[in-house]
Amino acid sequence: MNFDLTQEQQMIKKTIKEFADEVVAPGAVDRDRSKEFPADIFKQLSDMGMMGLPFDEKYGGAGADTTSFAIVTEELSRACASTGITYSAHISLGGAPLNLFGTEQQKQRYLTPICKGESFGAFGLTEPNAGSDAGGTQTRATEDGDDWVINGSKVYITNASYANHLALTAITGMEGGKKEISAIIVPTDAEGFTIIDNYEKMGLNASNTTELVLDNVRVPKENLLGKRGQGFKQFMATLDGGRIGIAAMGVGIAQAAFDRALRYSKERKQFGKTLSEFQITQFKLADMAMKIELARNMVYKAAWLKDQGRPFTKEASMAKLYASEISMEVADEAIQIHGGYGYMKEYEVERYMRDAKLLEIGEGTSEIQRMVIARQIGC
Ligand code: CAA
Questions:
Q1: Which CATH architecture has domain 7-115?
Q2: Least enclosed by CB within 10 Å: which of 28, 334, 350, 366?
Q3: CB 315 less than 6 A from any atom of ligand 1
Q4: Acyl-CoA dehydrogenase/oxidase C-terminal domain: from which residue to which, for each copy (predicted)?
Q5: Are strands 123-124 and 165-175 parallel, antiparallel or unpaired?
């Protein structure tokens, strides 16, 4: 067993850490207020070759592994979680299903612009009446000549305003009394396709979260992604990978909260000594550090299993569940250590808590993760 990062992973970590500290972190407070999408940051990430990090070089990717993807997601999220979720969804929800299930032609056409940073990656699963029950999809695609004609809607879709195309799930028929759900690639400029970007969110304010409305959207039959009727399973498999990204985000946010709490505890004096000299503060910080260490190890293990081609559904779910819950706990403790200052926006720690909350909801709530884990352990 080897717990060291490889040379390539270390190099990626060093590069992205510097970029996160120097370029991403300085504007995070302003972006949280202005809700401005970090387009310029992504232009630079694209120049650095990060936008197609884990995908094949023949599509413009960098051919790196899932651990590297997790490292980049963690570091970006440490600096600005809105940037982190944009990146995580771009790779793990947008690029991954094309990479896993696309034909060679589809990969050339749709994955390449994602890797080159010409299009953001996104996918459409959740609907107004199909959240945790993702199989409750109501969006329908009917055959008409050589086309699919799609009607329905999707909600809470990350990155769609900046995507040229996205894969979404739709009912394409019935099989043995059950809905046949397929995945179809839809260009976002198709006639009848409307993207609505007007959510007022609690956190992750600079990330793009949208509603999609499909009104007789017509796409060629060749836009079917993977096998007809396999769309739900394909998206479940995609979410396994996405959950590693959300878990890495949790580690990044928790690390940011811990770093600030540690620094503040050494500066702030009460009763004639710094907070860090009180055992109560030391114990809080020790617990925070332990949780972060454990969450990061869980992320790396799930990423490693994925890269070995081994089953990783359980580990990805456990990492996502644990990392998202500890990011809330650590952010909460960081606010507590800051006292009244922590409640004020200028000290930033309150943003960590608002951002972290989404991690317990998005890409499967904590309750859904427990359901997935329970099934995996044979309950
Ligand atoms: N990989 C591959 N196949 C899988 C799978 C996986 N991880 N999980 C399930 N499947 C397969 C099952 O084997 C089963 O196949 P068979 O029919 O051949 O037996 C099929 O899929 C149906 O599985 P279940 O019976 O377990 O399905 P279910 O209806 O009970 O739902 C669930 C399972 C785990 C609750 C699932 O619905 C789920 O994960 N829900 C949460 C959805 C979620 O995370 N949504 C967030 C999306 S993120 C988003 O929308 C934001 C954005 O930016 C786009």
A1: Orthogonal Bundle (1.10)
A2: 366
A3: no
A4: 229-377
A5: parallel
